[in-house]
Amino acid sequence: MKYAACLIAGCAALAACNSSPKVNEKNASVAEVAQKVQEAGTDQSFIRAGKWQSKVTIDKFEVPGMPADVAQRMQGVMAQQQAHSFESCVTQEDVKRPKADFFTGKNNECQYDHFTMGGGKIDALMHCPGKGGSGETTMQMAGTYSPESYQMQMATKVEPGAGGHGGVNMEMRVDSHRVGECSSNG
Fold first, then answer.
1. How many CA atoms are closer than 13 Å to the CA of 70, on its beta-carbon side?
2. Residue 186 maps to a domain
3. Burial of residue 100, with CB atoms counted within 10 A of its CB: 0-12 exposed, 13-18 middle, 19 or more buried
4. pLDDT tens, 47-57?
5. Can you tell me the distance from the alpha carbon of 149 to that of 158, in angstroms, rounded to the nearest whole number?
6. 120 closest CA partner among 35, 9, 46
7. Domain contains 157
8. pTM of the model as a whole
9. Residue 42 burial (CB < 10 Å; 0-12/13-18/19+)?
């Protein structure tokens, strides 16, 4: 869940205000999309840097083949975690120069089928090949943003890897808003 939260914080760093230039890429690498977002925003105000408060809600989490009692315990733990929001500091540098690996971590083989951002909306579909025995990951994102808030819906599907193990289906949403300036300790 922490990875997903970082992913959503990345969306905030990539999002520009409603009068922003548009980015519309197809069949592009993560680095290419990050570069296009940087280029499109060089003369525009991105979301406001500062302290952001986010709440992640997991609407669906399925692991095919998982025993029912394990799934029930996992859902209980996840429900407890969802009761809390988290804060993150988005720096001016984050706003101006989003990192290419914000969405994918260290998997630089991911490819966007499409990435569209503009007019306060973002829509993307990305595929990442399996690594370390896991199967291919498909991530779909759609949401809205402004300088002071964003909402994002995400659906992630990890195909079973070698031997048919490790598949996951997850749907989540993030609601985030700016709550002030960052403190000196983050």
1. 6
2. no
3. middle
4. 788 999 999 88
5. 29
6. 46
7. yes
8. 0.74
9. exposed
